[in-house]
Amino acid sequence: MNDDKKPVISLTTESPYIVVNLKRFENLHGKKYPLKPIMGLCRCGESNDKPYCDGAHKEKGIDWEKKPDRHEYRWKNYAGDEITIHFNPAVCSHDGSCRDNLPSVFNIDRRPWINTNGASVDEIIEVIKLCPSGALCYSIGGQRYSEFYSGEPLIRASKKGPIEVLGGIKLNDDQGEKPETEDHYVLCGCGWSKNKPFCDGHHLEKLKQNNEK
Ligand code: SF4
Ligand code: FES
Hints:
With about 210 residues, the chain is an alpha+beta fold. Helices cover about 10% and strands about 20% of the residues. It contains four helices and twelve strands. The strands form three sheets. It has a four-stranded mixed beta sheet, with no helix packed on it. The model has no long low-confidence stretch (mean pLDDT about 95). Bound molecules: iron/sulfur cluster (SF4) and FE2/S2 (inorganic) cluster.
């Protein structure tokens, strides 16, 4: 693939996400969205044509700044006998993949919420690879592993908010924001994140307030 044909996401403080050269665009269940060579995706949460931008941000503007009360950026380490799990709450998009797929290890009703000896190393690695945001990674024998997605570049967008970006799609942000992991990250499409442009799970609060599921 020529460099100039690789997909790229660009954004400014006044623009939606501008996506070029994308070849795979789906919802979170794998259903394909129509592709255009250049697409604007909603980041203010107000579009009536989500996940595409319909220009709604032009009226209210885009609240693009990070909020001072966002989750502190901090890696927490959970050591087990053979593997250490690392978790950074600032990056978590709260999609629940870890909790739903391996509750013996990831259980938010327990403290500490991660029990690293609760499953085999292979099971843990398999589930960490499902984490869309970069909030989870692991170390074995002192070597840290955080980039996992080797497939074709893909964007999976939910009309309710999160925009999952997989496969090393470059983010060109005029504020210089870089994702935690380059091969997988989640952008905010609801407008409520305190850690913009990245999703921090606040779409769940928005849905609750609006009585949506
Ligand atoms: S983003 Fe990662 S850490 Fe957060 S809930 Fe999903 S799988 Fe778990
Ligand atoms: S999509 Fe906005 S906080 Fe998750």
